[in-house]
Amino acid sequence: MTAHPHRHWAPPPSHTPRPPPGGDVNTIPWIPPPARPIVFKNAAVVDVANNSVKKSQTVVLEHGLVTSVSRDADVVVPGARVIDLDGLYLCPGLVDCHVHINMSDGRPSSGYTDPHLRATYTLKAMLARGFTTVRDVGGATFSQAQAVKQWLTPGPRLFQGGKILSQTGGHGDPRSRESSVSSLCCAPESDMSVLADGVEGVTRAARELMRQGADHVKICTSGGVSSPTDALESVQFSPAEIRAITSTVADMQGTLVTSHAYTVPAIRRAVENGVRGIEHGNLLDRDTAKLLASTGTFLTPTLMISTAKGRAPWNDTLPEYMREKNVKVRDAGRRAIQIAEEEGVTVCFGTDLTMGMGYLQSEEFTQRGQLLPSHRVLAHATTNAAKLLNDDKIGVIAAGAYADCLVLPANPLEDVRVLDVGADGRHGGIWGVVRDGRIVVARDEFAEAVEGVGGLDVDLGIEEAK
Ligand SMILES: [Zn+2]
């Protein structure tokens, strides 16, 4: 051992007690300091509601909100970072209204990690794809939403309904779902749903979900693809049970009960008993679309999950029953979304990707773009989603809205494929992602501009963000 003459430490002569940071014991140490304001100049602002673009706009972001949008190029905001977008498009952040953050990425047994820990990757990857808000319809918790809100885990704003409410033997019954989705150590499937039967049982279960801070309540009124014993055609929960759930949630100020439902009888039973959201809806017919429109019921189709299951490599991994069920819903789902649009239903963007398919999330834009005009598809993921979530700060770039936006090289109202990140690892045209007024992704030309004002606010630290 050589002696190190500089390596000397001696105790201080006295100990001075330190106050907590900021003098407050309630300070949450991981909440980052407020982001410096941003002034975007020369932005082409995408106005989805009016299917138009406002050129040469100056957009100010402060305190996590958009504070002004104007043609005044001389706006001065003290301490702001000024970024000249040179005509690039500024689009509202995207919303995926049907996700399962605790089972999107990695195979179920990946490293035997807890689903809530794995979700920290999924949330970052979704944000890197431009999704600044997501609605989880099975599995996410109130505390995960808080973690995102506090930037403990970078991710999209999270709306969650806790566990799925299912009848015994229904689509959400973990015992009747595909066993390959269960994991040895943490059984994410049983974390995803709660079983209840009878008016008394479902009332208590709905109250419990509301107590846990659910933003909505998700139920199942039809069978599903990934469960071998409940037929797609099965209709689940009695009318009285559904009414008990919807009235309980309404009494407790819940916003919405939404139902997993593929078939007409399942959709009708749900809507006729107070449900105002339909998930999937693949076998929707025209008369039922009219019912959705006249009752103001939201439809969230999920084309990407059935598309992915129908092609390599996923189709080879599916058991026979699942492949057969998937064929029944895949092509019908493409027709259903068109019928719904024609009948004036408020259609929202959803993907439902599970079992390691999360990387396909933004291909949903390409799939819908084959069936509908681009500006309609963009509305699904912005303005319509804002109505579903009952939050007018989402889906728009205007004073008072959340400072959630994307920087794009092309107009998504004309070609929504600019938002498709691409399964081959391309980044599509998403050059920049801002959530809460914090820049989290910067690529291409936008990366140079961001470098000039001090770089990213938050480095997501994953390959998808590069
Ligand atoms: Zn789902």
Summarize the topology.
Blueprint (H helix, E strand, L loop, with lengths): L37 E10 L4 E11 L2 E6 L10 E4 L4 E4 L1 E6 L15 H14 L2 E6 L5 H8 L7 E4 L3 E3 L21 H5 E3 L2 H14 L5 E4 L18 H13 L5 E5 L2 H9 L4 E4 L5 H10 L2 E3 L2 H7 L4 H4 L2 H23 L20 H7 L4 H7 L2 H7 L15 E4 L23 E4 L2 E5 L1 H8 L15
Parallel strand pairs: 1-4, 1-5, 6-7, 7-8, 9-10, 11-12, 12-13, 13-14
Antiparallel strand pairs: 1-2, 2-3, 5-15, 15-16, 16-17
The structure holds zinc ion.
Task: Please tell me about this protein's structure.
- GO terms for molecular function: hydrolase activity, acting on carbon-nitrogen (but not peptide) bonds.
- This is Amidohydrolase-related domain-containing protein.
- Pfam families: Amidohydro_1.
- InterPro entries: Amidohydro-rel (IPR006680), Metal-dep_hydrolase_composite (IPR011059), Metal_Hydrolase (IPR032466), Metallo-dep_Hydrolase (IPR051781), OTAase-like (IPR057744).
- Residues 10-22 have a biased composition (Pro residues).
- It is a single chain.
- The chain has 466 residues and is α/β, with parallel strands linked by helices.
- It folds into two domains: 38-92 and 398-465, Roll (Urease, subunit C, domain 1), CATH 2.30.40; 94-361, TIM Barrel, CATH 3.20.20.140.
- The protein contains 14 helices and 17 strands.
- It has helices at residues 115-128, 142-149, 188-192, 198-211, 239-251, 264-272, 286-295, 303-309, 314-317, 320-342, 363-369, 374-380, 383-389, 444-451, and strands at 38-47, 52-62, 65-70, 81-84, 89-92, 94-99, 131-136, 157-160, 164-166, 193-195, 217-220, 257-261, 277-280, 298-300, 405-408, 432-435, 438-442.
- Strands 1, 2, 3, 4, 5, 15, 16 and 17 form an eight-stranded mixed beta sheet that branches. A four-stranded parallel beta sheet has the order 11-12-13-14.
- Strand 9, helix 3 (188-192) and strand 10 (193-195) form a beta-alpha-beta unit.
- The chain starts with 37 loop residues before the first strand and ends in a 15-residue tail after the last helix.
- It binds zinc ion.
- Zinc ion (ZN) binds next to loops.
